[in-house]
Amino acid sequence: MAKFDTYRDAFPNARLTRKDNGVLEVALHTGGGKLVFNGHTHEQFVELFHQIGEDRDTRAVILTGTGDAFMDTIDPDGFDFFSPQGYDKILREGRKVLSNILDIEVPMITALNGPVLLHSEYALLTDIILATPETVFQDKPHFEFGIVPGDGVHLLWPHVIGSIRGRYFLLTRQLLDAETAKDYGVVNEIVPADRLLARAHEIADGIAALPPLTGRYTRIALTQQLRRLIDEGASYGLALEGISAADVARTMAAQG
């Protein structure tokens, strides 16, 4: 069991605030501005979601970003894709972060404050997705680095928008605007940026007013299919991603 005061300030790339009604807001950031995702945040977010899931005093979670993007920038610092030991760490963290999000047994709302060009699987594992008109979706870095998009997006995008659409989205690096994403069923509401968090809190406050076990068990009921999907395919997808990363490393070494 985790207590909020023991972990609220433990994560340098997540600003955590919780209201008296148990609504927890998690704002991802780097230095107070837009998040720059790297190997250190990859490791950090495993424990972040674990601690949130272990706190029985939280009644609903709002996940959001900072600045003008939810997540659109990645830096290789802290990643080792090119050795067995390094990729073993990435595989473990990639698998655990997904299961730890699903182990948060209270309803989750994602408030997308801008583009989502990487790790959109975080949002797709939550229950309600709000976006701004400026929000766009794309799986950008995998193919740019020459590696398989196997960290969960290969499972969740075909599941959410349909098999043909999902495969097209990943294979062509399709850019989905907010309206198209809403039409496809990825986004529930498109909200002006200055109203985004207020709307997220409005929904979360309604959920937090439910009896505690009702909210908790509803999240559990609604995520059983997602849990089976992730359990079945996440490790395999990450292994395929690792094989492709090893091939990229071999090619780079031959050229260098």
Concise description?
The mean pLDDT is 96. The chain has 11 helices and 8 strands. It has helices at residues 4-7, 39-54, 84-102, 121-124, 141-145, 153-161, 163-171, 178-184, 196-208, 212-222, 224-255, and strands spanning 14-18, 23-28, 60-64, 108-112, 128-131, 136-137, 176-177, 189-190.
Helix and strand composition category:
alpha/beta
Global Rg? 18 Å
Order of helices and strands: HEEHEHEHEEHHHEHEHHH
* Structure annotation, total helices: 11
Strand % is 5-15%
- Global geometry: globular
Strand order of the largest sheet: 1-2-3-4-5-8
Distance between the termini: 50 Å
**Biggest pleated sheet:** 6 strands, mixed
Helical content stands at 40-55%
Number of strand segments: 8
Low-pLDDT runs of 5+ residues are none
Organism: Sphingomonas citri
Family: Belongs to the enoyl-CoA hydratase/isomerase family.
InterPro entries: ClpP/crotonase-like_dom_sf, Enoyl-CoA_hydra/iso
Protein name: Enoyl-CoA hydratase/isomerase family protein
